[in-house]
Amino acid sequence: MRRLLAAAVFVCAILSTPVAAQDTPPVRIAGHFTGVMSNGPFDPVLVGGKVLIPLTDRVEIYPGLSRVVSRFYDDAWEATVAVQIRPFGTPSRTPLYIAMGWMVVKDGGITEGVDLVAPGVEIPVGRLRPFAELQFLGLLQISQAGFGVQAQFGLTWATR
After folding, report:
1. Are 116 and 101 spatial neighbours (Cβ–Cβ below 8 Å)?
2. How many CA atoms lie within 13 A of 149 on its CB side?
3. Are 31 and 152 spatial neighbours (Cβ–Cβ below 8 Å)?
4. What residues contact residue 79 under an 8 Å CB cut-off, 6+ apart?
5. Which of 29, 48, 62, 70 sits 20 to 30 Å CA-CA off 130?
6. What is the pLDDT of residue 117?
7. What is the pLDDT of residues 85-138, one digit of tens each?
8. Cis status of the peptide bond prior to 44, with omega within 30 of 0
9. Does any domain span residue 9?
10. What is the pTM of this model?
11. Residue 41 — pLDDT band, cuts 50, 70, 90?
């Protein structure tokens, strides 16, 4: 137990040093709407949010949650955990990124986990930044739901 506690303190100290020195970008909170394009254009539509937590200048991790807003889909939602990487520079210099992660999709009585690959663009124009990404679901694995595509649009807000 002591080793686990010492390792946790060590990792937190390493991760918090750049944050305390204000070297990393700020945490950003995002609201978004998502259109599922597997069944036709934007059928169904989801509304949700995510929190982008910077790990380095170019790498962020984000958990997200979306809820379907349609009368035909009663109990449907999506939960996402992804790593967002900016291969061409920092968020203040380049709008392009790619996100890779895992998504849990609950559609009625069926709950399934699928992989997520999402190229995107976030316009660096201050504390409020519009973004758009194209999400490819199940691209790397064969799932019951098959391959899916979603378009996500939203706005991020920097906390500092």
Report:
1. yes
2. 7
3. no
4. 63, 64, 65, 66, 103, 104
5. 70
6. 94
7. 998 877 677 889 999 999 988 877 778 888 999 999 998 888 899 999 999 988
8. yes
9. no
10. 0.76
11. low
3-state secondary structure of 11: helix
C-alpha 14: how far from chain center = 24
Q: Which residue type occupies 46?
A: L
Show the domain range for 66: 25-158
Total domains, the chain: 1
Report residue 157 as tokens.
């807000």
Residue 112 placed within a domain: yes
In 3D space, the residue among 76, 82, 84 whose CA is nearest the CA of residue 39 turns out to be 76
Alpha-carbon span 111 to 76, nearest angstrom:
9
H or E stretch covering 19:
helix 2-20
142: which residues sit within 8 A by CB, 6+ positions away? none
